[in-house]
Design brief:
This is Transposase. With 58 residues, the chain is mostly helical. It is built from four helices and no strands. The longest helix is centred in the first third of the chain and has 15 residues. The C terminus is likely disordered.
């Protein structure tokens, strides 16, 4: 798998561990999961559909 696929796979696995029930909950959950990504993986998050603004806010 390429690095983007690996990062997306990691994000999906982490989100499945504790699913969010609302969009706001999902945004908060994504923010709390950023600490679990290495710096080189965080650079790929905009490629996964997360906007740069959302990544900076979270």
């Amino acid at each position: 798998m390429n690095p983007i696929e690996m990062a997306f796979s990691k994000l999906k696995a982490l989100l499945r561990q504790e699913p969010a029930r609302t969009v706001d909950g999902l945004v908060e959950r994504n923010g709390s999961l950023l600490d679990r990504f290495l710096p080189n993986e965080r650079q790929l998050l905009p490629c996964l559909g997360l906007s740069k603004v959302m990544v900076k806010v979270l």
